Amino acid sequence: MESLGKAINQLVGGQAISTFETGGDNIDVRVRLVGDDRQHASALETLPMRTSDGSLTELRNIASVSNTFGPVTIERQNRRRQVTVLANLADGKPLAEAVQQVESLAQEIGLPTGVEGVFTGTAETMAESFASMLFALVLAVVLTYMVLAAQFESFVHPLTIMISLPLSIGGALGALALTGRTLNIFSMIGMVMLMGLVTKNAILLVDYTNLLRRRGTARDDALRQAGPTRLRPILMTTCSTIAGMIPIAIGLGEGSESRAPMGACVVGGMITSTLLTLVVIPVVYSLMDQFSTWVVRWFSHDQSTNELASPALLDHTSQQQLPSPTPSTISAASAKIAS
């Protein structure tokens, strides 16, 4: 079959046997059948072919020739043949929604065995961008925790502060839904910005609570005083941030459609995190403080138990190693005392 395909390719497509130079350009000289003998299927049927035993026979005796459709070029990806299907988005059609519709359509049709669909172009770029942004989001959370742990010199208080991070995600997604925006690369950038903005409210509460406790105030009293005292600076910083992002969220100016989702995420996330932080953070602080106190007591009790058990064990061991006095030893000692 391979030799048959090579023979037909040489007769129809031609074989380069030499080059012709003219005007500084090299032109291949190819030998192939004349035009009428390679244009029709009936002419190809009479082509002489050499069989495996060396005899000549016509092509129609060993193969069937028919007209059909085929690709002009064969494209490959990772050494596998591929067929590229191109499509453009309709007006106002989000890319993520279009990708989901294409995937559902491919599942309904059912691809043959060994055939798989892979997205390229802008869809592939979107998937890579989302993966990069998720990595950046996780890295932002880790770095935020490291900085807070270094500043507060504690592993518990940073966890209390970072509870405000998930409180902002709901508001960001809700703002996108209310404004009709989509979750794209710019809205993901807004999510990353929220990771650093929403923690400031919890920092103000926790830091002032720790200050009051160092002055001798009880935990619950410190929490009740920290909220009203830090309410004004929390509202001032939040309102200034929201006011600065409102023009971006509204979408004013050229190219604002791409930046509007980022502004909507920041505005929605700041509103919900500010309202919920004033209620949730004191509760979480109290629970985490109780948990840390219980852990310290448990370890201190375990350590004190080990310290008390160790001398008793040594004393008991020393008593076992002392030899018991024999009667001869007692008699010798009595005689010595009498003398």
Automatic annotation (TrEMBL):
<keyword id="KW-0472">Membrane</keyword>
<feature type="transmembrane region" description="Helical">
    <location>
        <begin position="264"/>
        <end position="288"/>
    </location>
</feature>
<feature type="transmembrane region" description="Helical">
    <location>
        <begin position="155"/>
        <end position="178"/>
    </location>
</feature>
<dbReference type="GO" id="GO:0005886">
    <property type="term" value="C:plasma membrane"/>
</dbReference>
<keyword id="KW-1133">Transmembrane helix</keyword>
<dbReference type="Pfam" id="PF00873">
    <property type="entry name" value="ACR_tran"/>
</dbReference>
<keyword id="KW-0812">Transmembrane</keyword>
<feature type="transmembrane region" description="Helical">
    <location>
        <begin position="185"/>
        <end position="206"/>
    </location>
</feature>
<dbReference type="InterPro" id="IPR027463">
    <property type="entry name" value="AcrB_DN_DC_subdom"/>
</dbReference>
<feature type="transmembrane region" description="Helical">
    <location>
        <begin position="234"/>
        <end position="252"/>
    </location>
</feature>
<dbReference type="GO" id="GO:0042910">
    <property type="term" value="F:xenobiotic transmembrane transporter activity"/>
</dbReference>
<feature type="region of interest" description="Disordered">
    <location>
        <begin position="317"/>
        <end position="339"/>
    </location>
</feature>
<dbReference type="InterPro" id="IPR001036">
    <property type="entry name" value="Acrflvin-R"/>
</dbReference>
<feature type="compositionally biased region" description="Low complexity">
    <location>
        <begin position="327"/>
        <end position="339"/>
    </location>
</feature>
<feature type="transmembrane region" description="Helical">
    <location>
        <begin position="130"/>
        <end position="149"/>
    </location>
</feature>
<protein>
    <submittedName>
        <fullName>Multidrug resistance protein MdtC</fullName>
    </submittedName>
</protein>
